[in-house]
Amino acid sequence: MSVVDAFAATSGPGLASSLMIGASIAKGLAIGFGKPYLAINHLEGHLLSPFFGDADGDEQIKRNVSLIVSGGHTMSVLVRGLEDYELIGRTIDDAAGEAFDKVAKMLGLGYPGGPEIEKHARGGDPNRFDLPRSMLGSENFSFSGLKTAVRYLLPKIRERRLTQTPYNLDERILSDLCASFQQAVIDVLVTKTIAAAQKYRVDLITVSGGVSCNQELRRQLREACSRKGFEFKSAEPWLCTDNAAMIAFAALLRLQAGFQSKITEEIDPNLALV
Question: Do the beta carbons of residue 110 and residue 181 sit within 8 Å?
């Protein structure tokens, strides 16, 4: 155990039972082996994951605007350095990933909805259905209206059948609808992220979280950054969904910077990043 420098666990946000199990085990190991304990914010794990594998410890964290986009969270954050974060905007209702899941369920697709919609969107016409891009003038996000627009659109284009699948859409229509929905989400995320980077005068934009596995989102955000003169950095896909590696990485950076947590620190299922 001499090769282990510290033990870390996610302290929140998340399910209380899961957080409690992880934190209790990490604390027990830290006490048992006389090592530091670090309580890590789940969202900070996402936030820092685009820098995973870079060589310069916490000094690698360049000033940037970070887009964290997942099933439970959609937010943009101004990052000045390790533990120096300012919230720019967050979703006021559904997160982007949540909207993907709910729309996929409406369409009779599988869970999680993001990969299913992305798969069906390939080759689809993203301009076939005119769907809303909400709150483009605001720094906050909203995807509930987009989800509702799809719900109201479905009765106009669906064919009913008496099976367990509620709607049987022609494959061409399904592909176009998925592409149109996906493009609406991407337009909001890209437009707001570029606007935030311009407002806060950063050179770098980063993206992380489960929804950032979407290849079309990555492509369009990368291209927008190139057009506007921003450097672009994304977490590897295997680091985008919830994983232990990003938590260990955040703990490593904090340990290198001299941080550690009290062994009595409690979990917080509603823990905020900022």
Answer: no
Q: How many helices (H) and strands (E) does the chain have?
A: 9, 7
Query: What single letter denotes the amino acid at residue 96?
Result: A
Tell me the whole-structure pTM to 2 decimals: 0.92
In this prediction, residue 60 has a pLDDT band, given cuts at 50, 70 and 90, of confident
Say how many C-beta atoms besides its own lie within 10 A of residue 80's C-beta: 14
Q: 64-69 and 74-81 as β-strands: parallel, antiparallel, unpaired?
A: antiparallel
d(CA 35, CA 52): 23
What CATH architecture applies to the domain 1-52+238-274?
2-Layer Sandwich (3.30)
Tens digit of each residue's pLDDT (9 = 90 or more) over 229-263: 999 999 999 999 999 999 999 999 999 999 999 99
Domain 96-234: what homologous superfamily? Answer: ATPase, nucleotide binding domain (3.30.420.40)
Cβ count within 10 A of residue 89: 19
96-234 matches 1-52+238-274 in CATH topology: yes
CA distances, 155 to each of 92, 113, 162, 239 (Å): 27, 20, 15, 38
User: What are 148-163's pLDDT values in tens digits?
Assistant: 999 999 988 865 443 3
